[in-house]
Specification:
alpha/beta; seven-stranded mixed β-sheet; six-stranded parallel β-sheet; single chain; about 350 residues
């Protein structure tokens, strides 16, 4: 089969579109003919080599979001059949022993992630346990489905399982035009929250408004904390949903109301952040919460909600898989609103 892979760290020039061995299923595995995958920031970070997940190794085939058609099944597979259209849960939490990935299921240890530590969707075919594939309804396209696993599950887990967001609360969401924040805005509005969204351009702020955000600001030209307090009549927000990290850490904290929650699920602007005021943090009872990996039992319910809801997947550009270097460059430049899709 063909794959976009690399065997050394570096720029996009290390990516090679070439023939590689096709996967072989064990008893509880299926092989999916990949219809689409997406580009995520982790693809870029690991390719560059300045951060890699535990268990990552070279050569590597990225692509954490995978949809396609089942073309082969292992001896024990009853959950799906050849010809089924499916989406893959890339986290191997609870992967069965009869899968090739059965030993990769420790949430806080060796957690296998398709496209991150295991071969992913930047290829013609992808292997997954039968327990980790879910049917795509007939009225949902592959393009609509493929944005879900990484961005929408990350946002769902951070907002609801970790952040405990409720109807009527106010949440501030940074990087509003990114895939995970596009999901977060829509998830938050779906439960009746008030959304304040920040982004780095007026175009991206406008997109956030179109997705349902109640208020937006340009986080490169405005005082974010001052703006947040103005929009909440001086009270501050109940929660900040953040995956930017260092660049907006101080304004995120100072935007929170007493006992507010800063939920972090990423570090795209750097891995080191300084608490701007310990006094403010302990006096106001500020909670800083890391959003850990989602659990296996969260995926199915969130997937059903996504399929049933009238959510906008927001797709920026669709590339051929062999043009993946161009797609990664586009993401590196933040020259996109929504997801970038690759099609083998």
């Amino acid at each position: 089969m063909k794959a976009l892979t690399y065997d050394a760290h570096g720029g996009t020039d290390v990516l090679q579109y070439k023939d590689v061995a096709s996967p072989s299923p064990q008893a509880d595995d299926v092989i999916v003919d990949v219809a689409a995958t997406t580009v995520n920031h982790l693809d870029l970070i690991q390719r560059a080599g300045y951060f890699t997940l535990d268990g990552y190794a070279l050569p590597h085939i990225a692509g954490m979001d995978v949809v396609g058609t089942v073309i082969e099944v292992g001896a024990n597979v009853t959950r799906v059949a050849v010809g089924d259209r499916v989406v893959i849960d890339p986290s191997m939490h609870c992967a069965p022993d009869g899968s090739a990935y059965g030993g990769e299921n420790d949430l806080y240890g060796k957690l296998g992630v398709i496209g991150a530590t295991l071969n992913g969707g930047y290829a013609d075919q992808c292997l997954a346990p039968q327990t980790h594939v879910y049917a795509i309804p007939d009225d949902i396209s592959f393009e609509h489905a493929v944005v879900f696993p990484t961005a929408w599950m990350t946002a769902h887990h951070a907002l609801f399982d970790v952040g405990m967001l409720e109807a009527g609360e106010t949440v501030m969401i940074h990087a509003a035009a990114s895939g995970v924040s596009i999901a977060a805005i829509q998830w938050a509005k779906s439960v009746g929250a008030i959304v304040l969204a920040t982004a780095g351009s007026e175009e991206k702020c406008q997109k956030a408004l179109e997705l349902g955000a109640d208020h937006t600001c340009n986080n490169r030209s405005e005082d974010v904390a001052k703006w947040a307090r103005e929009k909440t009549a001086g009270k501050g927000v109940d929660m900040v949903f953040d995956h930017v990290g260092a660049a907006l850490w101080a304004p995120s904290m100072f935007s929170l109301k007493p006992r507010g929650r800063l939920v972090n699920c990423g570090n795209t602007s750097g891995d080191a952040a300084t608490i701007p005021s310990l006094g403010f943090m302990y006096h106001m009872g500020i909670k800083i919460l890391g959003s850990d990996p989602y659990r296996y039992d969260e995926f199915e319910g969130a997937w059903k909600s996504y399929c049933a809801g009238k959510f906008d997947p927001v797709i920026d550009t669709v590339f051929a898989l062999e043009d993946g270097a161009e797609a990664q460059t586009k993401l590196e430049k933040a020259d996109c609103v929504g997801k970038l899709i690759l099609k083998p």
